[in-house]
Amino acid sequence: MAEFKYAVELTHPDFPAPDVVAEEYDPESIYVSGLPFWQEQQFYTRGGVIPWKNQTDKACRKLAKHMTNLAESMEAELKAHKKPAPVLVRDALGIFLSILFWSNHRPVQLDNLMEQISTLEMKPLNLEERLEYVLKRGNTYLGFRQLNELVLEQRKLIAKK
Questions:
Q1: What distance separates the 2 farthest-apart alpha carbons in the chain?
Q2: 51 contacts 105 by C-beta, under 8 angstroms
Q3: Is the pTM of this model over 0.85?
Q4: What SS3 state is found at 161?
Q5: Helix, strand, coil abundance in the chain, percent, nearest 5
Q6: What angle do CA 88, 94, 99 make, to 5 degrees?
Q7: Opening angle at CA 94, ends 77 and 104, nearest 5
Q8: If you ran DSSP here, which 8-state letter would residue 24 be given?
Q9: CA–CA dist 40, 42 (Å, integer)
Q10: CA-to-CA distance for 122 and 33, rounded, in angstroms?
Q11: What is the pLDDT of residues 52-107, one digit of tens each?
Q12: Class of residue 161 by CB neighbours under 10 A (exposed 0-12, middle 13-18, buried 19+)
């Protein structure tokens, strides 16, 4: 069993490679819990499904449904005065970044993340500063609220387009 490593394009200190066996997952899956950027990993290492090119709106809607479930879990934790599990926060951030990049018809690219984001055409206002805040404080109530707002704003931009 080989240790899972993200492709170079997906390396970022806030998204460490999970301790998983990649062969156990369906390469067609849009979302894999605990393994953000599953489709991009497939793309950068093997090719495969490209949801940011084919049926982008449908893929973003599927991710948004997963985000709703994650948000409910995170909100329940925060209401109980607990911090959400890091894997929940990473999954939620991963879904947002996937929606963000896919709606711009590009795969997520985490190396030089802020530089990559600056080149996106369709994105929420002041995204760079807001995302920086969420990356640092995603497990807090305010970080959670900011992430929810970013997802909502991106979905509105997609609908408007």
A1: 46
A2: no
A3: yes
A4: coil
A5: 60, 0, 40
A6: 130
A7: 135
A8: G
A9: 5
A10: 26
A11: 998 899 999 999 999 999 999 999 999 999 999 999 999 999 999 999 999 999 99
A12: exposed
Rounded CA-CA distance 135/93 in Å is 8
Q: Look up residue 122 and give its two tokens.
A: 């369709």
Chain Cα centroid distance, residue 74: 15
Q: How far is CA 148 from CA 44, 90, 120, 152, in A?
A: 28, 14, 20, 6
Structure tokens at 98: 């996937």
d(CA 134, CA 156): 20
Q: How many CB atoms lie within 10 A of CB 139?
A: 19
State the DSSP H helix or E strand holding residue 151, giving kind and residue range, or none if neither.
helix 141-160
The SS3 assignment for 89 reads helix
